[in-house]
Specification:
About 40% of the residues lie in helices and about 20% in strands. The chain is of the alpha/beta class. A 5-stranded mixed sheet has the order 5-4-3-6-7, covered by helices on one side. A two-stranded antiparallel sheet has the order 1-2.
């Protein structure tokens, strides 16, 4: 019984520590080179500005929940943009041999938001949790502070994300 209590206390303490340290290890807008589907490079300093909320949605070409999440964002994106001024970037962390699939999906899906590839997987070292488990979404306020993050996807999660975005006005 004492051992179970000890384990429970250790777990709660670790949760509190992770909650306190849930900010990225580098300052927004980071300094990460990403590839566009046309194979040109752009740095996050040029993409990410401290002027409006920013959503970073991480995905893989082989991840079915990632596809569902991005499809739901695409379905609502035009209406969301009418209600809130924010940016959304879909960032693949696929391995190099999958980059052709990233390009193909970006072309075929015609998502209304920009698609990039983190070819060095640099965001894994910067964002809390190391992008363990996809899809993952990170919401930054207009000052570049991480205010919300979410792992996995279930129908309806997009409404929670948009509610968080609207609350940042």
């Amino acid at each position: 019984m004492k051992f179970q209590l000890f384990i429970a206390v250790c777990y709660l303490m670790s949760q509190n520590l992770s909650a306190q340290n849930n900010q990225p290890t580098a300052n927004f807008p980071f300094n990460i080179d990403l590839l566009k589907p046309d194979s040109t490079t752009v740095n996050t300093h040029h993409l990410l500005k401290k002027d409006k909320p920013t959503v970073l949605a991480f995905w893989l070409t082989t991840c079915v929940p990632c596809h569902a999440e991005l499809a739901s964002y695409a379905q609502h994106f035009a209406d969301w943009q009418k209600e809130a001024d924010f940016r959304l970037l879909a960032i693949s962390i696929d391995f190099p041999e999958r980059f052709q699939q990233v390009k193909k999906m970006a072309r075929e899906k015609k998502w209304p938001f920009p698609v990039y590839w983190d070819n060095t997987r640099a965001f894994k070292a910067v964002l809390p949790g190391g992008l363990n488990g996809l899809p993952q979404v990170f919401l930054f306020d207009k000052n570049g502070t991480l205010v919300w993050q979410h792992k996995k996807y279930a129908s309806g999660d997009e409404a929670e994300l948009f509610a968080k975005i609207k609350a940042l006005k």
